[in-house]
Automatic annotation (TrEMBL), chain A:
<dbReference type="GO" id="GO:0046872">
    <property type="term" value="F:metal ion binding"/>
</dbReference>
<keyword id="KW-0408">Iron</keyword>
<dbReference type="InterPro" id="IPR002731">
    <property type="entry name" value="ATPase_BadF"/>
</dbReference>
<keyword id="KW-0411">Iron-sulfur</keyword>
<dbReference type="GO" id="GO:0051536">
    <property type="term" value="F:iron-sulfur cluster binding"/>
</dbReference>
<dbReference type="InterPro" id="IPR043129">
    <property type="entry name" value="ATPase_NBD"/>
</dbReference>
<protein>
    <submittedName>
        <fullName>Benzoyl-CoA reductase</fullName>
    </submittedName>
</protein>
<dbReference type="Pfam" id="PF01869">
    <property type="entry name" value="BcrAD_BadFG"/>
</dbReference>
<dbReference type="InterPro" id="IPR008275">
    <property type="entry name" value="CoA_E_activase_dom"/>
</dbReference>
Automatic annotation (TrEMBL), chain B:
<keyword id="KW-0479">Metal-binding</keyword>
<dbReference type="InterPro" id="IPR010327">
    <property type="entry name" value="FldB/FldC_alpha/beta"/>
</dbReference>
<dbReference type="GO" id="GO:0051536">
    <property type="term" value="F:iron-sulfur cluster binding"/>
</dbReference>
<keyword id="KW-0408">Iron</keyword>
<keyword id="KW-0411">Iron-sulfur</keyword>
<dbReference type="GO" id="GO:0046872">
    <property type="term" value="F:metal ion binding"/>
</dbReference>
<protein>
    <submittedName>
        <fullName>Benzoyl-CoA reductase</fullName>
    </submittedName>
</protein>
<comment type="similarity">
    <text>Belongs to the FldB/FldC dehydratase alpha/beta subunit family.</text>
</comment>
<dbReference type="GO" id="GO:0016836">
    <property type="term" value="F:hydro-lyase activity"/>
</dbReference>
Amino acid sequence: MALRTMGVDLGSTTAKAVVVDEAGGIVAHRVVQMGAVSRRGVAAAIDAVLDDAGLERGDLGQVIATGYGRRLVPDVDRTFTEITCHARGVAAMCPGAALVIDIGGQDSKAIRVDEVGLVDDFAMNDRCASGTGRFFEVLARALECRLDDLDDLALAGGQDLEVSSMCATFAETEIISLLAEGEEPTDIAASVHRAVSARTLGLVSRVGRAAPVVMTGGVARSRAAVHFLAESLRAPVIVPAEPQISGAYGAALLGLESLQGETRVIGQAVDREHVHTGQQPNGRDCSTCSLGRAKYQPIDVELWTASIAADRRP
Amino acid sequence: MTTQTGSTVTRMQTTRAGGQMIADYWDNIFTARERGKHVVWYNGSALNPIFQAAGLEWCHGEAFSARLAAQHLEGPAQLAGAEYGYINELCSYSRTHLGCAVLSNGGGPAPGSETGVVDALDQQELASKLPKPDFFVNAYSGCSTGQQWDEMTYRVFGRSIPIFNVSIPFLWGNRPDSTYMAGQEWDEATDYVVGQLRELVTFIEAQTGRPFDWDALSESMSYIRRASELRLEGMALCERKPTPATYWDWVASIAHINFLPGDQALVDYFASVRDEIQARVDAGVPALENERYRLYFDGIMNWNKLGWLAKRFAEYDAAVIAGRYTHSSFWQEPQLIDPEDPLRGMAQHYLLCPINHSLKTLNYLTLRDCERFEIDGLVFHSTRTCRAFTNPQTMLASTAREHLGIPAMFFEGDVADASFYKDDILESRLVAMLESIDVRRAKAGV
């Protein structure tokens, strides 16, 4: 059977699963909305993506878990943080990306990425849900509309009502007060989006601006969120076709690379070996490497091998 | 890669035993009244050598709050403080201690009144333990809350207890000749604080009715100077790879250097610490079984989680080695201490509080220690209710990244309020930073 690996990203509100082939191409992917860190959600996502790919669990070479609930994913070969996986996934989805902004259900992050998808720096939101997908759920509830309706409302808004970006709970109170004062729902929706963008800009400032900017996570599906973020950054924002699966995709790629012998640490070891030997340890030529570019200097592979050998965690 | 390999911290026997010294110290305070001693409550700078020479018993408010938090006993005091009006956005050290003041005073400004939120058992337990002060001394540098803290306590006790305030000026470091511990500003600030310390001695003489024992102060400061030298010798041994001791060991020794009496026992303690570390070096025993990362910790300790954090970092083979709170504080420049002229060196250490510097100096201290201990990454404890410590943290992270190319992580928490902290957030960010350290190493071909 051809080599297949799976990445599973268990976030705070959704479970994502991606299966890739030996060239790093996506065979199947699923996003399952099952509420807060849910074992049923992750099982549903895994079952669905395996079904779509026509595979059994035992057919997979590696299963890598990531995300807030990565330790809840059963029978995985190893875990990586969502920071590493998002960077890796975005580098494959949008080659050349320099700044990744990921806004999920309960957290947001800014990741500076180097030219081959390795993390240079990152910043995450604090414990507050402000500036995350949760913020938009609060908005929809207060405006008594569907989440999907927020885009049109916000994009039609003009006046900036300066909604607080500090607390999702207080923002709900603020929104209700604004409605009571007779403010337009369109202006309120636009103002909340500006507040989220301002919060995100704070994260970006901690890692430094860079371009191209790629936005991922569930909030990236919102046209309004992308619009206001681009306005705030004064730069175009690229959204991959499937912005929610970048973490799971990155996890699957990391699993693939470890099986192909390309990687000791997130793929960079193979880059050195490309430079150093002109081929991968498994005998494949560089064109099959999912990173594809070889820019680093040779490393001491023995040292890395020893480092990995010391890693006793499954 | 950055997954756990399950190192454990080999905790130092000396610091473990040192816990008894601290327990004995507090037990001594709790019985001060029975022994007819004057009690002073103070905050901020380590004025204890002056109190020791004056024959007083001294209670450092922050230290007592930290002790309660470390023992998970802070709740009743914080409830009492909240009932009195000190909300949870206020420094958790101060509201814990203010809560103790409320309880010590019977629940409110009127002696004998009762608190409604703290049950009688807790109230009795705390109130009976910390004796009421005979007077207050405040000498807080770099923190506006700290500078008002004792005045708040003064009001809790109905403005009936004398208070003396020592003003410690902030070191802006912005004059042309300003450098770390040098320049006109440094000299002028030193003179200014020394003058106030002389006035403090006069105040204490008035309170006790006894002449101040200057010889006792010189003796105490000579012990403290020697203890500090030994502490620094132990820290210097941690430049080795792998480190023989960790930041957590130095945290366990903060109380000793910060407020225990300056005497032979203090010197003996730090001699034992130094000797145990040296013995580890000689025997090739590392603090962690498998040190893979060397980290710097910026922030006041999250006292509720001290043991947990030490274990958690070790599980990822991350040796936390140095920190601003341990290595840039607490009599850390012993060469400034002249037992023949003790007030000057004391004043200078009060000025050297790690929240009393401009960014220029903090950058210098951070880079100095990161280079000295060959640090791979910085951990910033973003202390929710201590803005004085957290204010420069993002700038310090940027400085380390730009000058040394090392990454940083932030986690939220608090000094004495566990509600601001979450394990999962710390762990995610720690692992992400360790992964980015791996990336940097790989890029550098290390």
